[in-house]
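User: Can you predict the 3D structure for this chain?
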Amino acid sequence: MRNEKSVKKGPKKSRHIRFISDVTDKIMPEIEEWQKRPLSEVYPVVFIDAIHYSVRDNGIIRKLAAYIIPGIGTEGRKEVLTIQVGENESSKYWLSVLNDLKNRGVKDILLIYSDGLTGIREAIGTAYPDTEYQRCIVHQVRNTLKYVSDKDRKPFAADLKTIDQAPNEQEGLNARERVSEKWQDRYPNAMKSWEKNWDALTPIFKFSADVRTVIYTTNAIESLNSTYRKLNRQRSVFPSDQALLKALYLATFEATKKWTMPIRNWGRVYGELSIMYEGRLPD
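Assistant: Here is the predicted structure, written as structure tokens:
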């Protein structure tokens, strides 16, 4: 009897998988339409974030990056502009991504906030020369703490907060130097990235706490990132690039249903951005 039951389960499971595949295949035209939809002319802030997934390719499992690009429009509403999967990072690649946004109607972006993706800065300078590039503070801190032993991570992280929470750039620089001096003997390489990328870490210092809160990806799109991370927990390996792409879009459609209201304190944030980037936002 046990063998008979096991024989019956196979076709049923196979039919279930085919049903799911058929359903997701039907959304491909919707995905393609979404990928090509016109975008707004101006986005005050655009984020670029990478999440890695395991994908099977001709029997070999490889890691692919999904690049999620949300933005905040002039009315303060969040929107995912595009999702890109699996390409190698380079200035040429990022230029093609930004040119796609231009071709869909995006004429200006005030600030792009991302990790230190290879070639992103050069591509921004070409596609949107007036756009300011801000390196992600959250990723910067995480990358620094990789050099630090478990017992020192909490005090080191507390010291790093004194840098990005400084009231202005000079105070931030002073804090950076204090942190470097304090931990230099124990972790000589930990702060080198802060020194090397300081000019890309400093734009945020000119803003008030309200604007900084908006710009930090953890506050602006953390719920979206949490949705994408669940995909890794639900499926350890995706059967193909297309299966991953479909899963990402389904997750995006579901998560963004809740994005109906402007972000908190948007009026105040918009007023400050209008002054900082005079003449580039609608009145």
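The first strand starts at residue 42 and ends at 57. The CA atoms of residues 174 and 184 lie 15 Å apart.
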